[in-house]
Amino acid sequence: MSDLTRLSAAALADALSSGETSSVEATQAHLDRIAAVEGAVHAFLHVSTDEALATAADVDARRAAGEQLHALAGVPIAVKDVVVTQGLPTTAGSKILEGWVPPYDATLVEKIKAAGLPILGKTNMDEFAMGSSTEHSAYGNTHNPWDLDRIPGGSGGGSAAAVAAYEAPLAIGTDTGGSIRQPAAVTGTVGVKPTYGGVSRYGLIALASSLDQAGPVTRTVLDSALLHELIGGHDPRDSTSLAEPLPALVAAARLGAAADLSGVRVGVITELQGEGYQPGVLARFEESLELLRGAGAEIVEVSCPRFTYALAAYYLILPAEASSNLAKFDGMRFGLRVIPDDNPTAERVMSATRGQGFGDEVKRRIILGTYALSAGYYDAYYGSAQKVRTLIQRDFAAAFEKADVLVSPTAPTTAFKLGEKLDDPLAMYLNDVATIPANLAGVPGLSLPSGLSDDGLPVGFQVLAPAKADDRLYRVGAALEALLENEWGGPLLGRAPELETR
Ligand code: GLN
């Protein structure tokens, strides 16, 4: 079969089960693609060629022996480098973890391995998932396959770029404030942040524990549903893991593809549009709303007035939790250890290690976080931010009385130029205005491509649902995807420029 890298995961899974191709062939095709385009894209920090091919060969042998396999068995996948993988280097994009090889697997990696998906490698990211452009990685930039001079979003720019550049049909991301959805938006891919607690956090290197959630990055809505069902579900090793089973996500995506949304109320969030949003982003958003209306959805306007404070609350809560989570990187336990020449006391080793091991953005947030948590300021900063968080949750609750799903543009702009916002942390933080409210409230969100802006770059459409109703994301997302692809005559990524291969 030609062009195995262009197939969706669902189509590749079908080709595997019908015997049209083998997992070794499919995995090799992706490894070849990685070899051909990585020089331009740099989506991966580590490519695990031998391990991936060994898994593929094992799956092929089990299939040949007639064993009953998982639907995605043999379909290769890339994993963000913030997720621990036994035997594969894991750095979280930081020098402080350079050379660390975890002794165990994250729960979601265990599930991926048990289902027989070959792991192609670990993807690039902003250091400890802090950023919106992947430029804060200690290991160099990832480039957006649509325009190599532009950012692929962040923090999970590596996963999104790998999927957009056909280096992997599936990838894992993590989303603390938008790091799955915003990279998906700016690369023309699909990304889902599940309900908080829907996918185990065991084995994710924590950024902000009350916000972090792992989820799928794919090229189609159905593929995200398939991957979400594989990695989700209760895990006794994560104390915030939800006890109840996931809703039927794949079924919802298949239902949605029929593009009949009669009876579905879609709420447009007043506060997440208008000023600060690129005209082309708003234009694509309006067109998508018209398509949803045409499919029978009832479009209502809903106001969430406290969303205006979401970014400010997030940049107190996240640094506070991050400063605590990152305290364990002290040069004693994992990765880098810097020993100063004179008087190397434990404290001076820790200080030298953290001084050299962490980048500027990480240091900035540790300083912010320890300040917000310090005795005299705790109530004024961290305490107030937690109260705002409750108000945002109430805004969501009120909005979901009026609508079954809420929608907005995923990000205010398309992919900006590499370097453009690097020296302006506040401008960088603004990329997540539309995605952060969902993390603060724990509700699920999906981003799918809704067309190209006037600059020829992809625009994302965000769908949000109440906690534990992730199935609604897939129903509405698959419907909009079907309607848009019908207009375009195929997937948006089909219009991306061909990458030069070598
Ligand atoms: N860009 C946001 C931040 O820098 C989101 C990060 C994330 O979701 N991991 O915090």
TrEMBL record:
Swiss-Prot/TrEMBL catalytic activity: L-glutamyl-tRNA(Gln) + L-glutamine + ATP + H2O = L-glutaminyl-tRNA(Gln) + L-glutamate + ADP + phosphate + H(+)
EC number(s) per entry: 6.3.5.7
Residue positions of the active site: 80 (charge relay system), 155 (charge relay system), 179 (acyl-ester intermediate)
Keywords in alphabetical order: ATP-binding, Ligase, Nucleotide-binding, Protein biosynthesis
InterPro entries for this protein: Amidase, Amidase_CS, Amidase_dom, AS_sf, GatA
Superkingdom as given in the UniProt entry: Bacteria
Domain Amidase: 25-473
Cited NCBIfam families: gatA
PANTHER family reported in the protein's UniProt record: GLUTAMYL-TRNA(GLN) AMIDOTRANSFERASE SUBUNIT A, TRANSAMIDASE
Its biological purpose: Allows the formation of correctly charged Gln-tRNA(Gln) through the transamidation of misacylated Glu-tRNA(Gln) in organisms which lack glutaminyl-tRNA synthetase. The reaction takes place in the presence of glutamine and ATP through an activated gamma-phospho-Glu-tRNA(Gln).
Summary of subunit composition and partner proteins: Heterotrimer of A, B and C subunits.
Family: Belongs to the amidase family. GatA subfamily.
Protein name, per record: Glutamyl-tRNA(Gln) amidotransferase subunit A
Organism: Cellulomonas edaphi
